[in-house]
Amino acid sequence: MSAFWRELATGYVSVAVLLTVGYGLLRTALALMGRLGLHLSARQTLWAGRATLALALLLPPVCMSVRGLVPTGPLFTFDRSVVRLTTRLPEPAWNAGPRATAPRSAEAPTSFPVGLAVALLLGTAAGVHCARELRQHLRLLRRLESQPRVRQVGRVAVVLCDSEATAFSTWFPRAAPHPSAWVAVPPHLLEDPAGLRMTVLHELQHHRQRDTVLAYVRLLLRGLFFWNPAVHAFERWLATCQELACDEALMSGGKARPHDYARCLLDAALRASGSPPLPAGVTGMAHPTTRRIEMLFQSRPSRPHRAIGLVAAVALTLVPLALWAQSATRGRAVTLAEAQALARSSQREGDIPVVVDEQVVAKLNQFVTTPKGRAFMKKALTNLGPHREAFMRTLRARGLPEGLLAVAMVESAVTNMPETSTNPSLAPGLRGAGVWMFIPSTARQYGLQVDAERDERLDVARETEAAAALFSALHGRYSDWRLALAAYNQGEEKVDEVLRTTGVRDVSELTRAGHLNDYVSIVQAGILVLRNPQLLD
Q1: Residue whose C-alpha is closest to residue 496's, from 516, 472, 481
Q2: Contacts of 230 (CB under 8 A, 6+ apart)
Q3: Are 161 and 185 in contact (CB under 8 A)?
Q4: 3-class DSSP state for residue 334?
Q5: How many CB atoms lie within 10 A of CB 489?
Q6: Cis ω before 353 (30° cut-off from 0)
Q7: How far apart are CA 498 and CA 516, in angstroms?
């Protein structure tokens, strides 16, 4: 699955989780506040619901963006001093025994892409559902255009609907001078001026609250998450809140008297029993009536801080959940036991043994679960392809293991770049140049010309020969590949000093104690990726 589709799937699952949890938290909090006598007004409740919906929709992309800005490697704050030996290339000081060629395993049968099949099924079903709902809206628009108009003010048109239908309002994105906001009223209201007035006022309030515009968001959510009952419940609850908010606005504004308005609501509810269902997203006046009529005779003071506090409490729960959801769908972190098993199963005879500890696991998870880490290592593997055979010929000539290719991966993503390049590197310390990132002094000591006229560090073949000689000398000195890698990055003098003062040769312990930086952990994690590129799939 490509990175784009993986990110899309991550966002989809994250939104589904947040919608479900956010709706549950909101309803639970509102119920608790009601028991404590901390009631919210209908308009505040609607605002809290919309704010929760916005959080569920916006948090996943925001969290992905923030996560993408987090660097995957250390900054260049360490003093880097590579070994200074002689001015000529030394002879190899270490030779590996002959390695048996591992038998090629039979090609595994291609597994059925279950995830892709599920994504295609959900995408097709959601597309069909949304297309059907939009088609019903287009049919409704054509029907409204054919109905007689009672009145039109600007781009708002009041029309007569079918005799058996209830009053409703809807909105269509249309260019002027065509009307975009519609109010449909049944013909019998023409005989009841007071009822007609209150019905039109109610439906116009839906337009003022932007209910008819946001109805398309609800329609889209219903289509995309047709399989999620919590989303359907959230959508129905928001529709009810919209009606209550309209009622409250008319009552608090003095545009209608409670008894007359209650009679209008009751009449609409009685006539709605035999009416055809309205298209999804269309606001209709006939909603559960008992609670609405009771609310007309109750006064609830406005307490804006309660609604803000409620949304803030929901946000405090949804933000970490959004981070967890997108991390979980992006790729589950590798555990210590799993990384150790991976190192054992991919270990090759004569190659560098990977000692997996907590630091190596942390670096490995940076490579496989973060956007920048995955992008860096994928680039490194891609760039390694055309150079791999040439590198291996040079390493084999000195009896060096294949795992050293991971050094070029973490140093430069196998990119031949000058010292002034701004391309990223995962290696701590001063920047060098070339694929193996030699600093000038070390390059000159290993026979490479570095001056204003020529920089042989950018000669990949020459720098690879120098790097092979350096690796051979370091392993000959320490007889331990992890100490040799530490000296490659921090210098032989630094490693000798640490060994002399601590008396410890365990690099894991030295790194945990802060005597050595985390370069060895980074390279060992790179070796695991080199041997198991499927980790980046």
Answers
A1: 516
A2: 19, 20, 23, 24
A3: yes
A4: coil
A5: 26
A6: no
A7: 8
469/473 Cα distance (integer angstroms): 6
Q: Report residue 118 as tokens.
A: 């599920």
Residue with tokens 């209008």: 264
267 CB-near residues (< 8 Å, 6+ apart)? 195
Q: Coil, helix or strand for 256?
A: coil
Task: Give the DSSP H or E segment for 151.
Answer: strand 149-153
CA distance 260 to 391: 88
Report the alpha-carbon distance of residue 484 to residue 520 in Å, rounded.
9
Length of the chain, in residues: 537
Structure tokens at 535: 């980790």
**Structure tokens given for 480:** 């331990």
Task: Give 460-471 as a DSSP string.
Answer: HHHHHHHHHHHH
- Model pLDDT for residues 166-221, shown as the tens digit of each residue: 889 999 988 888 899 999 998 988 898 988 999 999 999 999 999 999 988 988 89
The crossing angle, in degrees rounded to 10, of helices 460-478 and 371-397 is 80
Sheet holding 156-160, edge to edge: 149-153, 156-160, 181-185, 168-171, 283-284
Q: Which amino acid is at 31?
A: A
Degrees (nearest 5) of the Cα angle 138, 139, 142? 90
Please, where are the H alpha helices in 225-257?
229-252
Q: Are strands 181-185 and 156-160 parallel, antiparallel or unpaired?
A: parallel
Q: Are 21 and 52 in contact (CB under 8 A)?
A: no
Burial tier of 414 (Cβ tally within 10 Å: 0-12, 13-18, 19+): buried
Tell me if 46 sits within 8 A of 83, measured CB to CB. no
User: Which DSSP helix (H) or strand (E) runs through 114?
Assistant: helix 114-146
C-alpha–C-alpha distance, residues 201 and 29, integer Å = 32
Q: How many CA atoms lie within 13 A of 13 on its CB side?
A: 20
β-bridge partners, 434: 417
CA distances from 521 to 24, 64, 377, 483 (A): 43, 26, 15, 11
- Dump pLDDT digits (tens) for 380-393: 999 999 999 999 99
The answer to whether the beta carbons of residues 219 and 140 sit under 8 Å apart is no
Give the pLDDT of residue 68: 52
